[in-house]
Request: fold
Amino acid sequence: MSTQSDANNHWHRRLERNTTLFTVLVTVAILIGGLVELIPLYQVHQRAEDTALVEPYTPLEAVGRDIYVREGCYNCHSQMIRPLHAEVLRYGEWSRSAEYAYDRPFQLGSRRIGPDLAREGGLRTNAWHWEHFWDPRAVVPGSIMPAYKWLYRRNVDVDDARATVRALRRLGTPYTEDHVDNVERYLREQGQAIVDDLATQGIEARWDQEIIAMIAYMQVLGTHLPALLGEDAPAPAPAGEAPGVDAPETAAPPAGQEPATEEAAADQAADEPALPAGEAVADEGADEDGAESDTERAPQDAPPAQDGDTP
Amino acid sequence: MVATSPSSEHPPRPAPHYDDAIVRAFVLATWFWGVVGMLVGLVLALQLAWWPANTELAALSFGRLRPVHTNAVIFAFAGNAIFAAVYHSTQRLCRVRMFNDGLSALHFWGWQLIILVGAVTLMAGMSQGKEYAELIWPIDIAITVIWVVFAINFFGTLAKRKTQHIYVALWFYIASIIVVAVLHIFNNLALPATLARSYPIYAGLTDAMVQWWYGHNAVAFFLTTPFLGLMYYYLPKAAERPVYSYRLSIVHFWALIFIYIWAGPHHLLYSAVPDWAQTLGSVFSIMLLAPSWGGMVNGLLTLRGAWDRVRTDAVLKFYVLGITFYGMATFEGPMLSIRPVNALSHYTDWTIAHVHAGALGWVGMMVFGMMYWMMPRLWGPLHSKKAMDLHFWLATVGIILYCLAIWVAGITQGLQWRALTDQGTLAYPSFVDTVTTLIPFYWVRGVGGLLYFAGICLMGWNLVMTIASASKSRGAEGGAA
Reply:
């Protein structure tokens, strides 16, 4: 197959005789780009993490996040709002790098078969999520999302959750020894707050159902932004920060969003939806109406709240 | 699978010291996993068009099944095809048998086991949650081990070669083996929490950068360079023409592998990743057009003087269409890396169309061309040339339907997301309205996929019949002897 008889004296012909040198040169060629792009970024991010105003996920939220990863939610949902006018109108404030400081693995996603979830926290009630995961079409007619009924049957495994917290702690997430040792208490307290909130809607649930962890994760998504931007202050208009931004009139979601405690998370979920001010309210308002009317139906539609298939 | 005895009649038979049993095994595995991967793809297409197809079984829900599809097509279908090509052509290019038959067998069975366990664990919900790197850490370690086995076997073969120079196909194989190892290891560095779950040592956007450095270069060094390598071997063989330009192959090889590695951040445009990284990704993606088209031009011009045969020889037809799709996909890729275009295309089906132009158009067509060229040389006369021709047309029409439908779907949805009313509010405030619009396109995509799938099934029939008649005639010979 050595067809290029004309080129026998070419410098490259000599290289072709030495496979070791050839392989080394290939390796060098590909490492340059990788190092230039990855190493500075790694350092930048380490620093961002040190100064992060973001709180780590609570154990229950971390477990919910694991379920999110397990079910492959990232295949249909992104968690990154780009600084584009229509996108900010639809979803709220664009995403900041520090918001992802504790995301392992990152879940930015690459395809929106469903909507972006970066500002999902506080947008809808716990009861809405409870209804939605059981039967998405009950609250969003026309939705093509699968029903996730097994999340209501399966229980959170406490030992598994402890392994999660321990591993994340070792990687630098600021959990304490207490989080590891008493992980069950953390799970139960936050879970029970959600269960109690659901009970006010006539929904009977248990704190250790997987769906409760999932709801906890949904409700924390994107809620650290006010802390990042300086509490209570309206978000600065994003103009100028990134190219392509057409500064929309967006304010930070209402204060009190950041769930400093488990109770706050539950309370806030029952509150008015946290929406960016302005037109976006009209946008998502439609969804919210549906949510409320379906919440009313919740008691008779309520999925089974008992009996898990835990090992 | 272990047919050996060369019969007198048909095309150039391999010299007996080459190990073709391993090539036959990889060819059959390629076909098998191709069917599995594409069948899962069809199920996913159906689930998007008709949600009840998700059933209520966790293992069959879209989110768990989609990684099965992507991993099966990339690592099982394309992977086995790469190994078939490498094991077949490397022996001939080095004029020696593979370095070690034991390593070859270990490579083959290890890889199939990895795929099988991978599919089962993914459906069980065991996932790392990073696209195309979903497999859990114990499987990642197994992949690393088997990849090292492959590398030892390959470089061992190079070391004992009886030729002086290494041919251009081998350059591409070398680059692929090295880079895939580097990417795989660095993207999967993680701390295990349990046997099935681990957490990456990188967090947030660093993890995203590492992932797309990996993800994009998996496209580059798993779905592009190995296939350019096999193009450089099988295309001149089938066309019976030398490669068009040796110098062009040098320039585009080094430029391609150097530039590709920078392009990953184009997956993160407009994200919170630093602007300089995004810009680098964009610029290098656009530069990538040149070496990519260098490969396409070198491939297509190799056919100079043989174009009359393209009309009659379906193997060449597969190659021509494959290389053309390569050219189109590598034009589309840089275009999608331009920020304003990306603003429209990102998160939509346009990306899916782009990927399938590459996977079905470039990878699939090159694999089919290679397999049809190999079949008479590995077993015996091809059972049906008509069926091969029909496969070509089924695949072609299938891809066109698939890509057109999904291109339109992607652009439609992208435009709906950004459409504003006169008052400056969103024209489609309810997200689900931008989803239901796409359902008709999803059906068309499903039909396209079905045609493509029918093609590979037809190939299976042709493959089985070819093997059957080859073993029958061998049996007859054996009886006579």
